[in-house]
Write a structure and sequence with these properties.
68% helix; mainly alpha; 158 residues; 5 helices
Length: 158
């Protein structure tokens, strides 16, 4: 890969990465403070925040891995449920720390929403960068890399 392409790739990934880091920092702080307010003091409040945030990151990566391996997606997979639960806990902690008015709650909801946006952008990019299935390898849609899926027209025109 040329230096120009690497620079473009970094420039393309940088905003999503920065968004994910900032959203994670906001989420982390709210979770830590909420945990401390509810009896998990000192290092334990940090551990709770790290567990929730890293669980979200791991679940997002697992969703990407499933797509890369062509594992059929169910409506509600385990990684999706874990991601939703982690984001829900983060949102709850953020709302617990919010000012008790509409704008306070809206602003407090931004970090978990931004995290979901970052995850969805990363997943879209991973899906677009996947190479086509090699010849003879089954695809998720039931076809193989060298033949169209059953009941689907051939992409090759005569």
């Amino acid at each position: 890969m040329s230096a120009g392409r690497r620079l473009l790739a970094v420039g393309d990934a940088l905003p999503v990465t920065v968004l994910a880091v900032i959203a994670g920092a906001g989420s982390f702080t709210h979770i830590r403070d909420t945990a401390a307010r509810h009896g998990q003091s000192g290092p334990m409040s940090w551990a709770v925040a790290v567990c929730i945030d890293l669980t979200c990151v791991m679940a997002a990566r697992e969703r990407q891995r499933d797509k890369q391996l062509g594992i059929p997606a169910r409506r509600l997979s385990w990684p999706t449920a874990v991601l939703a639960g982690g984001v829900g806990l983060s949102l709850a902690a953020n709302l617990a720390q919010a000012q008790p008015d509409a704008w306070g709650r809206i602003v407090a909801a931004v970090p978990p929403a931004a995290f979901l946006v970052a995850v969805s952008m990363i997943e879209r990019r991973a899906a677009r960068s996947r190479p086509a299935a090699p010849a003879g390898i089954p695809r998720q849609d039931g076809g193989t890399g060298d033949l169209p899926a059953p009941g689907r027209p051939s992409p090759v025109q005569d």
